[in-house]
Each structure stands twice: as C-alpha cells, then as structure tokens.
Amino acid sequence: MTLPKLIYFLNRIFWRITKPTTIGVRAMLLKENTILLVKHTYHDSWYLPGGRIKKGEIFEQAIRRELYEELDCELHSIRLFGVYNSFNEYKNDSIVIFYSDDFSLSGKTDGEIERYDFFKLNKLPEEVSMGTRKRIEEYTKGYTSNFGLW
C-alpha cells in the first residue's frame, strides 16, 4: 500500500468514528466537447478536480485555490452548476460544483494528483466515479441549477 493510500485509509477510519460535516468544491473544466478529469494518488477512479474549503474561504476562492494548487490552473470565468450532498465515507459532505470553459492550464500537478486527462463527454473511461459520471450526464442533458444527492 502506498503512503497516500495508507493516509486515505486512516482518514476513512477517523471519519467513521467522528462522522464529520464537510464542505467541498469541484469543477467541470470543459474544452471542445471534452472534460478534464483527475486521478488521485490515493484513488483508482477518475474525478472532477477540487477539494475542501478552508476556514474563512468562500466557494469561489476555494475552487480557484484548489485548481491552482492541484493543476496550476487559472480560471478566467466560472459559473455555478449545482450543490449536492453526499453521505459516502461516513461524512455529511456538501459539494458545490462549478463549470468553466475559460481557463489556463500549465500541465503541472501537485503530489495529490497522479495524472489528469481530457475525455470526450460521450466517451468517458469506465473508472469514472459514480458521482462524477452523474454530474457529467446532467451537464450533457442541459440541466442547470442542480441540487440533490451526489
């Protein structure tokens, strides 16, 4: 087991005991009918990039910071896509999703991201997480102002 996967495993034990309430942000980065997905060092699935909100941050600041830290990505414009709740991993997690087709990406990643890639919206890899797949399907169907379970 790699160190990131061990840390993730220990976090899950901690979450099972404490059942925390968390708030996170994720982004759909879209270019020419493709979407950017990330594969973390501690997961085997593909996800929308993002992370948690730090104390005192607003949602927009958090997603801009997370994308800059993880992908060296600068958002030029951003729109709200939806707000979701997840009870996976023993947490009460609220997830705010943004989308953008106007961003700059240098190609650098941090130690948390194993790799990233752009995938056609209608040809996603099998290993996409269920919540990520649902959000992409909502986007392709033209849904807006979304909310519900992740």
From TrEMBL:
UniProt keyword terms in alphabetical order: Hydrolase
Coiled coil: none
Matching InterPro entries: NUDIX_hydrolase-like_dom_sf (IPR015797), NUDIX_hydrolase_CS (IPR020084), NUDIX_hydrolase_dom (IPR000086)
One Pfam family recorded for the sequence: NUDIX
EC number: 3.6.1.-
Single GO term (MF): hydrolase activity
SUPFAM superfamilies, per the entry: Nudix
PROSITE patterns: NUDIX, NUDIX_BOX
Chain ranges of the Nudix hydrolase domain: 20-141
Transmembrane portions of the chain: none
Named cofactor requirement(s): Mg(2+)
Enzyme class at the top of the EC tree: hydrolase
Protein name: RNA pyrophosphohydrolase
Gene expressing this chain: rppH_9
